[in-house]
Amino acid sequence: MTSGQNDSGVLAGDERMLIDGELQYTASGATFDVIHPASEQVAGQATDGTVEDMERAVGAARRAFDETDWSRDLEFRYHCLTQLAAALDRNKEHLRRVLITEVGCPITVSGSQIESPIAEVTHWAEHGKNFEYLVDTGVHDTPMGPARRMIHHEPIGVVGAITPWNVPFYLNIAETVPALMAGNTVVLKPAQLTPWSGSEYGRIVTEETDIPAGVFNVVVSNANEVGAALSADSRVDMITFTGSTATGRAILASGAPTVKKTLLELGGKSAHIVLDDADFNAALPLAAMMACVMSGQSCILPSRILLPRSRYDEGLELLKTSMENFPVGDPWTPGNMQGPQISEGQRKKVLGLITSGVDSGARLITGGGIPRDLPVGYYVQPTLLADVDPDSQISQEEIFGPVLTVTPYDTDDDAIAIANNSIYGLSGEVSSGDVDRAMGVAKRMRTGNVTINGKSHFGITSPFGGTKQSGLGRRNGDEGYREYLEGKTIGLPA
Ligand code: NAD
Questions:
Q1: Where does the Aldehyde dehydrogenase domain lie (predicted)?
Q2: Does the residue 8 lie in any domain?
Q3: Residue 234 and residue 340 in one domain
Q4: Are residues 260 and 288 in the same domain?
Q5: How many CA atoms within 13 Å lie on the side-chain side of 407?
Q6: 380/486 same-domain check
Q7: 61, 223, 241, 381: which sits with the fewest CB atoms below 10 Å from its CB?
Q8: Same domain, residue pair 293 and 436
Q9: How many structural domains compose the chain?
């Protein structure tokens, strides 16, 4: 293990992965580099796990599920997850620095990626403790006479959790903690660009909690085939995945032969319908901020702004001013709210999509390139494109950068049709001076979640997920907990 550190706050995470209760390197000793996106420098290494490592981890999780009483001992699970919440809290400044090092997330906005998920561990421990696992549904008539029926909510078994790089610590927690509390065993496969948010989680579990060997495993790897091996393994009962729609499709296909339960949280291309009676001064600076915080690397970002033609220029001006004044820079400097993109590859993709937008007739209002004062680090200027054709590539593809596209519309019906013109259906937003009118529009948006007048739909107590090609199933809320359980109906004498 290395734990490098320099003056800017950069901190390398644990290089090892956790398999069957042991922090370890892959047998060959191979590692891969982890780059700090703000300096473009190698910040450290992570072990490069293989398909064989994944197979051992799945074997350990299978044994822990089948041969220990983890799945049946609710009190013990509550004890372990309460310990985990305290342990993560003790490590939180360390975790924050590791997160900023591998993601480049600004320190000023890191709370939602550190404090929030730690609080969620406590939430799930309490939710799981109070959940009604055995439900008496009463006496039912049957041809053989009356029968009482009970539903026993049981863990599914071995859960494979595969996470992306954009909010890695949060998603590692969101995918695994409810699964563990519900009595499953877990193998986590973090994203290649963010191995340490996973390896540090594994280290803390094994060093600071009583979670038994095999119950929680983390396989770190630079190869997609290792995630693919997890999703295809017949010993895995469920895959919980957050990432791109393309990978989601591959996971769904590889789970088909074993009819694996699959929970998918995928990409998005959300629209924000700004109605003609909206408070533009409240709605549009907030929309610009949401586009730039996290460098636009957010699945739920309403990146397509739909403005009424009657107030189009006014709306563009407000967005332009907000984006041009947005604090972009070194993530370690307090006050900066937008850091770099996570990698050179992502930056190229974002800049390429901006170019494709301009080529297809969009008008570049501001941004569009690399900030002149930030030559080092994978930064992109906050970018605003107007007159965007709803069928163009930049309107249809997820950008994952600090970019807003603006399209004018004439009537509410037009706006709804443009918003729904997408393979995605993750979230959306409506702004209006009339909440009833906004509700009417929100109900017609084909998405899993909608925000009205900036009031967020997102949080641990409410179900979250996508429609169409944005996913299957829900996280958060009681619905999110139930995803990790199966109901067994038991008939018994009345
Ligand atoms: P990605 O799909 O490229 O990778 C996600 C994970 O899948 C990584 O761990 C990767 O190693 C693994 N993987 C890749 N190929 C695989 C395969 N064939 N089988 C199994 N696993 C495989 O996504 P990304 O680029 O890391 O993340 C960005 C994407 O995540 C965006 O599309 C974004 O919208 C989405 N996302 C969605 C949500 C949500 O809640 N809906 C949240 C965050 C991010």
A1: 28-490
A2: no
A3: no
A4: no
A5: 26
A6: no
A7: 223
A8: yes
A9: 2
Is the full-model pTM beyond 0.85? Answer: yes
Looking at the structure, do residues 142 and 160 belong to the same domain, yes or no?
yes
User: What is the best residue among 244, 254, 349 to mutate for testing ligand 1's pocket, by most ligand atoms within 8 Å of CB?
Assistant: 244
Token code pair at residue 401:
């950068």
Q: In angstroms, what is the C-alpha Rg of the chain?
A: 23
300-323: per-residue pLDDT in tens?
999 999 999 999 999 999 999 999
Pocket around ligand 1: residues whose beta carbon is below 6 Å from it?
162-166, 189, 191-192, 224, 227-228, 231, 242-244, 247, 250-251, 265-268, 299, 398, 426, 466, 471
Q: Does residue 307 contact residue 406 with C-beta atoms inside 8 Å? A: yes
Q: Which of 15, 120, 265, 398 is catalytic?
A: 265
What are the b/e assignments for 424-437, b being 16+ CB within 10 Å? bbbbbbbbbeeeee
Residues whose CB falls within 8 Å of the CB of residue 321, separated by 6 or more in sequence, listed in order? none
pLDDT digits (tens, 9 = 90+) for 15-57: 999 999 999 999 999 999 999 999 999 999 999 999 999 999 9
The beta strands (E) that lie in 53-127 are given as: none
What is the domain-level CATH number for residue 279?
A: 3.40.309.10
Where are any strands of DSSP class E within 27-99?
31-36, 41-47
- Expressed as residue numbers, the domain containing 46 is 17-266+471-493
Residue 494 in 3-state DSSP? coil
pLDDT tens-digit readout, 231-288: 999 999 999 999 999 999 999 999 999 999 999 999 999 999 999 999 999 999 999 9
Residue 486 sits in the same domain as residue 455: no
**From the CA of 247, how far away is ligand 1's center (Å)?**
6
The enclosing domain of 45 has a CATH number of: 3.40.605.10
Task: Considering only the C-alpha atoms of the chain, give the largest distance between any 2 of them, rounded to a whole number of Å.
Answer: 80
- Rounded Cα distance between 86 and 133, Å, is 26
Residue nearest to atom 3 of ligand 1 (CA): 244
- Cβ proximity of 322 and 337 under 8 Å: no
**Residues 222 and 293 reside in one and the same domain:** no
Q: Whose CA is nearest to atom 14 of ligand 1?
A: 224
**pLDDT higher than 60, residue 4:** no
Tell me, in angstroms, the distance from the centre of ligand 1 to residue 463's CA. Answer: 20
**Alpha carbon distance 62, 214 (integer Å):** 8
Shortest-distance atom of ligand 1 to CA 268 = 34
Q: Answer yes or no: is pLDDT of 157 > 60.
A: yes
- Asked if residue 295 is part of any domain, the answer here is yes
